[in-house]
Write a structure and sequence with these properties.
The chain is α+β, with helices and mostly antiparallel strands. Helix content is 16%, strand content 42%.
Length: 113
Amino acid sequence: MRDRHRLPGAATSGYAPHLSAGCDRGGAVGASLEQLKRKQQALEPGSRITDTTVSGKPAFKATYESTKKSGPISGLTVRVSLSADRFCFVDIEARQGAMPPEADQIASSFALA
């Protein structure tokens, strides 16, 4: 990520928001943009997917509601395909209804170095 963002204390009280970013391989599924979208829908049915760009490359942003071991959560992910088998991502999750307003700012600052 290009910029470091710090979540305010009020946003991290209770269940702390989870933020992760990195790059990975697509595995047997692959990492084309369409394959990543299908995988997102399979993992989180009902995801709302919006096309976007990251550093000029086609990408998508998905928002979703889900139930994890810790309880109901709200999630936001941005994924960008680098090749047929590599992609980069940023994932943000928080207790349902407690997604910090900075989440969209963090996701939109995602850039490839």
